[in-house]
Amino acid sequence: MAGKQKPSAPRRINKKHSSARTVKEAPNDGRIRLNKFLADSGIASRRKADELIENGEITINGKKVFELGVRVDPSQDRILYKGKPVKEQNRFVYYVFNKPRSVVTTTSDPHGRPTVIDYFKKSTLRLFPVGRLDWDAEGLILITNDGEFAHKVIHPEKGVLKTYHAKLSGQPSDQQLEKLRRGVSIEGGGKVAAVHTRRLPNKGSDKKSWIELSIKEGKNHQVKKMFQKINFDVEKLRRVAIGGLKLGGLKPGDFKELNAEDFLRIFKKPSVNEDAP
Ligand code: URA
């Protein structure tokens, strides 16, 4: 039977049969194979689940099914085994999501603005975002139902780096970037420091710049406040990695479930250029 998993046992991460939109699953209609649903629910292994299906022991919405490839939407379909509803287990699940701009990082918003959890509406699990990204920031945010995992990712003492690309209103000097690495005091956040900074290739005007910066803490508006301390406004902000897990080619608004390797990457050092600019 599926159980709750922790970062220390990443190879046994449960795969959620998301009924929400995912990058990997196709077709992208919120349905999963019946045998996977039965296996995830702890009824039987996938092979045994196939036998149950072939023997006509499973009904969907009152009808026996025999077809092995049948797909179900667990949030809509009534699936019975031995006349009893098959319920999704409360398993821990982990997603990487590319938050678009103009989306709030919360589970619900009193002002009716779109939230990160709106993208997972079809899920029956109680999902929440791990940490925060500002309304106008985009990029990598983890979505889970595992509070202990979230704590391990967020807590500065655990040392999981969060890496950002920031578009600045000008070109900081080497000394100014060094100041960020030595540490600055920010309003409401105390002393914070960049673990790493790097200039990114400048695609546009010389009056702007893109800087990569990694931090351990997750104070409110931390990156913006740090750059304000050296007299720059952040015009765009994108989180590109958490630990060694990168956003990669995930488009804004898309998400995918973490596999065991992805999961382990979160707790590894990012493979970024650690050299000073
Ligand atoms: N720092 C910020 O200023 N904003 C974010 O969204 C994340 C880090």
What features would you describe in this structure?
By secondary structure, the protein is α+β, with helices and mostly antiparallel strands. The chain folds into two domains: 32-85, Structural Genomics Hypothetical 15.5 Kd Protein In mrcA-pckA Intergenic Region, Chain A; 89-277, Pseudouridine synthase. 17% of the residues lie in helices and 25% in strands. It contains six helices and 17 strands. The protein has helices at 34-40, 46-54, 147-154, 174-182, 222-229, 260-266, and strands at residues 32-33, 58-60, 63-64, 71-72, 79-81, 84-85, 94-99, 128-130, 138-144, 162-168, 184-186, 190-192, 194-199, 209-215, 234-242, 245-246, 255-257. Strands 7, 8, 9, 10, 13, 14, 15, 16 and 17 form a nine-stranded mixed β-sheet that branches. A four-stranded antiparallel β-sheet has the order 3-2-5-6, with no helix packed on it. Strands 1-4 form a two-stranded antiparallel sheet. A hairpin with a 7-residue loop joins strand 8 (128-130) and strand 9 (138-144). Helix 1 crosses helix 2 (46-54). The model is unreliable at 1-28 and 273-277 (pLDDT under 50). It binds uracil.
- CATH homology-level superfamily of the largest domain: Pseudouridine synthase
Strand residues, percent: 25-35%
CATH architecture of the largest domain: 2-Layer Sandwich
Q: How many structural domains in the coordinates?
A: 2
Q: In percent, how helical is the residue content?
A: 10-25%
Mean pLDDT: 85
Low-confidence stretches: 1-28, 273-277
Ligands, ions, cofactors = uracil
CATH fold topology of the largest domain: Pseudouridine synthase
String of helices and strands:
EHHEEEEEEEEHEHEEEEHEEEH
Number of helices: 6
| Class by SSE composition | alpha+beta
The Rg value, from CA coordinates, equals: 22 Å
Number of strands: 17
3D shape: elongated
CATH class category label of the largest domain: Alpha Beta
Amino- and carboxy-terminal Cα gap: 51 Å
- Major beta-sheet overview: 9 strands, mixed
